[in-house]
Design goal:
Blueprint: E1 3-4, H1 13-20, H2 22-33, H3 38-55, H4 61-95, H5 98-108, H6 113-131, H7 136-148, H8 152-162, H9 170-183, H10 187-194, H11 198-220, H12 223-243, H13 249-267, H14 292-312, H15 315-324, E2 327-329, E3 338-339, E4 351-353, H16 359-373, H17 378-391, H18 393-412, H19 414-423, H20 429-444, H21 447-465, H22 469-481, H23 488-497, H24 504-531, H25 543-546, H26 554-586
Parallel strand pairs: 1-3
Antiparallel strand pairs: 2-4
Helix pairs in contact: 1-19, 2-3, 3-4, 3-18, 4-9, 4-16, 4-17, 4-18, 5-14, 6-7, 6-8, 6-9, 6-11, 6-12, 6-13, 7-8, 7-23, 8-11, 8-23, 8-24, 9-21, 10-12, 10-22, 11-12, 12-13, 14-16, 14-26, 15-26, 18-21, 19-21, 20-21, 20-22, 20-24, 21-22, 22-24
């Protein structure tokens, strides 16, 4: 079977683009107007997209279904595999009680509300976004701030705004990974492009938060802390995204920002301690109740996570692991079955099941290594894993469905149709490209889903107007982060965390203006990147070309893995030592 794509089925590109966008209009209607659950809306959107592909584009039903299944496979692995492992590691930290130590440690650093917002909403929230994503940073950070005595509306609103800077690298880089899968641009290139945009927001956001809380004059009293918090985060976000890839920028930058602010507060304090005029009762103890060893032990799962992900990101390690655990196959009936509109073959990537070298596997191993360190048995860990699967069953369906729709839109020609229409905006398209990302996150609540929906469209549109597609694909992720603070899902999570259920509209009004301001900043930056500061665009090769390069020496990777094992043994020995000392102190007469 050789089916040829149709780009303009209605013989009018504007009408064809509107028809191609029917699935997008449908998900908008389902989520916003019909208030449908995200997973239901996503599944029905796939059904609508299949009907459009068959009835309007003349795509054979078999190819439409196979294209969708191909995308769903990528949604399940590696995307959902990463998400499940990341949330599992977080859940066992909570189940063990170690997360209470982390919360007490964060609350004990300062009693100034301005500095607490920087530490918890911005730095700690970014760390949580990098480690887990999917609403956890907003829920946890907002609840902590309320427990410290913050007004609930301010607590939720500040955490939603603070969650802007890290979203593109959330859940161990999942949004960037899916952008690469959809657009065929290498992960590192997209990570570098986003990492040259978002650090600007990362510097702005801390000051923005404090200004919202207390105004200009009181903000200037803590300017050193604002600068240290924002600049340290921005630097490590830039460095990690440009030289280490998309998986760790938030984790490392969040930790660096926390440590930098702690060091500053050791030698500098604001002249006055600032609090809200009318505060709710404080419920979280700000007196540090734990030793340094206990605090490090509580952080140990995330320390191991960081080391594991760094190691798994090294090319020699990937090559070594792939040499013993890597399955690659074509989806039967899909390969060599479609032609582009110009008659050239449409290349369909094989599905790669690299079950050992996947970042999700590194996270899973880190979680199971952490179990004895935090006092849980492997049986309890297994129960927590199945509970995590149950917790994420609907997000898994959502992600798989959205990625399935993205692959179908690409293979059927729907993406190309919309791209041609958008390209008619000409030189203005780079200004509008972040708005697509913003819209996608507003609709789905996820930068990952937004990238799955629109990154191929961004790629095709940029090519049509002669702009480097890396700029617009990166803009989809960067623009998307500004939509997170007003997405219905995020608003619902924030409201539930602080006891404002039923008052979601107040929270929306608190954040909506700031969402548009930050989106406008990203739009301007994207135009500058496309036409003025083009030197900022990293050099890269598309995936097909990059794949032909020689693989690193496999033996080198095994040496790195051995070094990793030694590092983990040393960390485990330290934590076990702390736990034994704590046990001896707890038993009288020992």
């Amino acid at each position: 079977m050789n089916w040829t794509q149709i780009v303009d089925p209605l013989q009018n590109i504007a009408f064809s683009a509107l028809a191609a966008a029917i699935p997008i209009f449908f998900i908008f209607l389902a989520l916003i107007i019909m208030k449908m659950k995200g997973y239901k809306a996503s599944v029905l959107t796939v059904v609508v997209a299949i009907l459009v592909a068959i009835l309007l584009y003349g795509m054979p039903a078999k190819l439409a279904v196979l294209s969708t299944v191909h995308g769903m496979l990528y949604g399940l692995f590696p995307i959902c595999w990463i998400i499940i492992s990341a949330v599992f590691l977080f859940n066992i930290t909570v189940k063990s009680g170690r997360f209470e130590i982390i919360k007490n440690f964060m609350a004990s650093i300062t009693t100034d509300r301005r500095l607490q917002a920087l530490l918890i909403a911005f730095s700690f929230g970014a760390f949580l976004e990098g480690a887990t994503g999917f609403g956890a940073p907003i829920a946890i950070s907002a609840a902590m701030l309320v427990g410290l005595g913050f007004n609930p509306l301010y607590a939720a609103g500040i955490c939603l705004i603070a969650n802007t800077a890290p979203v593109a690298f959330g859940a161990i880089g999942t949004p960037i990974i899916i952008a690469a899968k959809v657009s065929d641009i290498p992960e590192l290139a997209i990570s570098q492009m986003v990492g040259r945009t978002l650090p600007i927001l990362s510097i702005i956001v801390p000051l923005y938060l404090v200004l919202l809380m207390c105004g200009f004059k009181k903000s200037m009293e803590v300017l050193p802390a604002v600068l240290v918090s924002g600049v340290s985060f921005a630097f490590f976000q830039w460095f990690c995204s440009n030289y280490m890839g998309p998986m760790l920028p938030d984790v490392i930058a969040g930790l660096a920002s926390i440590i930098s602010l702690m060091v500053l507060l050791k030698y500098w304090k604001p002249k006055t301690i600032w609090r809200f005029k009318e505060e709710p009762q404080q419920t979280i103890d700000t007196e540090l109740k734990y030793s340094a060893g206990e605090v490090i032990g509580a952080w140990s799962p995330f320390i191991i996570l960081t080391i594991m992900v760094i190691a798994w990101g090294l090319e020699p390690v990937k090559a070594s692991l792939n040499s013993i655990g890597h399955i690659k196959f074509d989806v039967p009936g899909l390969q060599n079955s479609m032609l582009k509109a110009d008659g050239t073959p449409l290349v369909i990537k094989p599905f790669e099941f690299n079950y050992l070298s996947s970042p999700g596997t590194a996270l899973l191993i880190a979680a199971f290594i952490s179990l004895p360190l935090i006092g849980l048995s492997f049986k309890e860990g297994a129960k927590a894993y199945f509970a995590t699967l149950n917790q994420l069953k609907f997000p898994i369906v959502t992600v798989a469905s959205v990625v399935g729709f993205a692959f179908l839109a690409n293979n059927s020609g729907m993406s190309n149709t919309m791209a041609m229409a958008l390209a008619s905006t000409g030189a203005l398209f780079p200004f509008f490209s972040p708005i697509l990302g913003w819209l996608g996150v507003f609709l789905t609540g996820s930068d990952t889903s937004s990238n799955a929906l629109f990154c191929k469209l961004q790629y095709s549109s940029a090519n049509a107007i002669g702009v480097d597609p890396l700029v617009t694909v990166g803009a989809n992720a960067s623009g998307g982060v500004t939509g997170k603070m007003i997405s219905p899902q995020s608003i619902a999570i924030g409201a539930a965390a602080v006891g404002l259920v039923g008052k979601e509209s107040e929270l929306f009004r608190f954040t909506v203006k700031h969402s548009f301001i930050m989106l406008f900043v990203v739009c301007i930056l994207t135009v500058l990147q496309a036409y003025v500061i083009t030197w900022i665009i990293p050099t890269y090769k598309m995936m097909e070309t990059a794949a032909t390069t020689a693989l690193p020496d496999v033996s080198t990777g095994f040496i790195y893995i051995a070094i990793l094992a030694v590092a983990i043994v040393l960390i485990a020995s330290f934590v076990f030592g702390v736990n034994r000392r704590k046990a001896r102190i707890a038993v009288p007469g020992i």
